[in-house]
Design brief:
Blueprint lengths: L16 E2 L7 E5 L5 H6 L4 E12 L2 E15 L16 E7 L6 E10 L4 E9 L8 H15 L4 E7 L3 H9 L3 E6 L13 E7 L1
Parallel strand pairs: 7-8
Antiparallel strand pairs: 1-2, 2-5, 3-4, 5-6, 6-7, 8-10, 9-10
């Protein structure tokens, strides 16, 4: 879920809708080609003083928040240099400042897998100055609404265990831990982290 650059941007046909919470007032709309540079430039790094430790027990896995000192600064690597078109085959929605706004405050990229009727949220990111204002939730609601309109029964995403702020946000949105992979990031800049898979019914 760490895509950084936007390729061809697909529209969903949904009219812009206001984000449901607090300042700054934003609306969500389908991404346009002119949004590509802003999406590429969006700062999706984060700082956290806690990470999630994965605990294995006789009945499965649980997550435990663990303090880290000093706080961890996570900067995602640029993934646009591998020859593949970023966001190929994905739909992209952006949150912008008000009706007709051009400043991209966040975006979500997603697709529906027809074979198992699952909405896959590939990437969701909000600019640091606009976090905690409901922008991420509004974008996720757009993605889930699209998934339901296409018959998806489940929403699914992947997030690293060190991204405690995102895990907490996803839990507030109704996502629950449904699996993990200790090897997904092997050989990458995120080696040593654990991929957490989260899902919720639609």
């Amino acid at each position: 879920m760490n895509g950084r650059e936007a390729g061809p941007l697909h529209t969903s046909g949904h009219p812009p809708q206001p984000a449901p919470h607090g300042p700054p007032p934003v609306v969500c709309r389908p991404a346009e080609p002119a949004d590509r540079a802003a999406i590429e430039a969006l700062d999706d790094s984060f700082r956290t003083d806690r990470v999630y430790e994965v605990l294995a027990g006789p009945d499965g896995f649980t997550l435990r928040e663990t303090p880290v000192d000093p706080p961890l600064l996570k900067v995602f690597p640029d993934e646009g240099d591998d020859g593949e078109a970023p966001f190929e085959g994905l739909r992209v929605e952006v949150a912008v400042d008000g009706p007709g706004g051009e400043a991209v405050r966040g975006y979500v990229a997603f697709r529906v897998e027809e074979w198992n009727r699952r909405l896959v949220v590939d990437t969701i990111a909000v600019a640091p100055a606009h976090r905690g204002a409901g922008v991420g939730q509004a974008l996720m609601e757009r993605a889930c609404a699209y998934g339901r309109s296409r018959g998806a029964r489940t929403a699914w995403l992947e997030v690293t265990n060190v991204n405690a702020p995102a895990v907490r946000a996803y839990r507030r949105m109704g996502f629950e831990l449904c699996g993990l992979d200790t090897t997904l990031y092997r050989g990458t800049a995120s080696e040593g982290e654990t991929a957490l898979f989260m899902s919720k019914p639609l």
